[in-house]
């Protein structure tokens, strides 16, 4: 049997991003591993540790037995504590130790994915033991890996792959969240249309419409009279949606036409990742 065609795009996107990350970090000197990324509290080493840890869990490896320090300011929830465990346990690993473990983990995970014969709706265990479908699990890993590839690239000053398979998967992963951002979080009134116009390597325009019951939907049709249009570039969109920057920090890269107050509320709630 071969991999189900529904799963293959996520596997391809993960493979492309994880191989790019491996290529980026292999030549790093020790100090470069400590460069801060836009993930609060995480260095390049920490981001790579996170990726190694979650792929090891996907392989069925036991989680490390480790006590977290109590003074980690960025750890504010049980979910954050869960994610931090795989990171903190590797904080004193050297660059060569990191690259060796990354390479070994990628080899094991790639072999597992090449031999994947389950259906997309098969149930698997995710973070914190929560059950999810295999299709969703693979999409999340591909999304997470590409976003962290970009974190590493910005920290190292090595831009690239903004139009890779992972980038397009990330667009499709993030876009549905706009409905909740506009209709519920920003409180846009019934009958409102908000347009998000993104340019750059991944270019798209989407309209979020709020119906009479206050529910939001996202579609690609043009709105002739939107309450507000928010225009930005693809990288800024990702940084905002993934909580890497606050709207004020990239105000010069975001253009607003229409209702300024509503636009401000939308941008205030734009981050949709944990």
Automatic annotation (TrEMBL):
UniProt GO MF annotations: isomerase activity
Tell me the InterPro entries matching this sequence: DinB/YfiT-like, Maleyloyr_isom, MDMPI_C-term_domain, MDMPI_metal-binding, SCP2_sterol-bd_dom_sf
Q: Extract the signal peptide range.
A: none
Species for this entry: Streptomyces ochraceiscleroticus
Q: Which domain of life is it from?
A: Bacteria
Tell me which residues make up the Mycothiol-dependent maleylpyruvate isomerase metal-binding domain: 15-153
What keywords are annotated for this sequence in UniProt?
Isomerase
Taking every annotated instance into account, which residue ranges of this chain make up the domain MDMPI C-terminal? 169-264
Name of the molecule in the record: Maleylpyruvate isomerase family mycothiol-dependent enzyme
């Amino acid at each position: 049997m071969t991999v189900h065609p529904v799963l293959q795009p996520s596997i391809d996107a993960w493979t492309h991003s994880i191989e790019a990350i491996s290529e980026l970090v292999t030549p790093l000197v020790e100090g470069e591993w400590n460069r801060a990324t836009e993930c609060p509290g995480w260095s390049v080493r920490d981001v790579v540790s996170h990726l190694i840890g979650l792929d090891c869990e996907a392989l069925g490896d036991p989680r490390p037995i480790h006590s977290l320090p109590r003074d980690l300011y960025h750890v504010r929830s049980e979910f954050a504590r869960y994610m931090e465990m795989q990171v903190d346990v590797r904080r004193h690993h050297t660059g060569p130790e990191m690259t060796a473990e990354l390479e070994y983990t990628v080899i094991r995970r790639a072999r597992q994915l090449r031999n994947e014969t389950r259906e997309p709706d098969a149930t698997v265990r995710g973070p914190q033991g929560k059950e999810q479908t295999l299709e969703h699990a693979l999409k999340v890993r591909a999304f997470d890996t590409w976003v962290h590839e970009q974190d590493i690239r910005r920290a190292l000053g090595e831009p690239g792959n903004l139009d890779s398979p992972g980038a397009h998967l990330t667009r499709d992963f993030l876009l549905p969240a706009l409905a909740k951002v506009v209709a519920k979080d920003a409180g846009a009134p019934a009958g409102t249309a908000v347009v998000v116009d993104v340019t750059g390597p991944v270019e798209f325009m989407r309209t979020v419409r709020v119906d009479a019951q206050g529910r939001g939907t996202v579609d690609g049709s043009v709105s002739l009279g939107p309450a507000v249009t928010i225009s930005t570039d693809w990288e800024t969109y990702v940084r905002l949606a993934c909580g890497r920057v606050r709207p004020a920090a990239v105000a010069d890269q975001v253009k607003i036409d229409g209702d300024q107050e509503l636009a401000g509320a939308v941008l205030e709630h734009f981050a949709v990742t944990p």
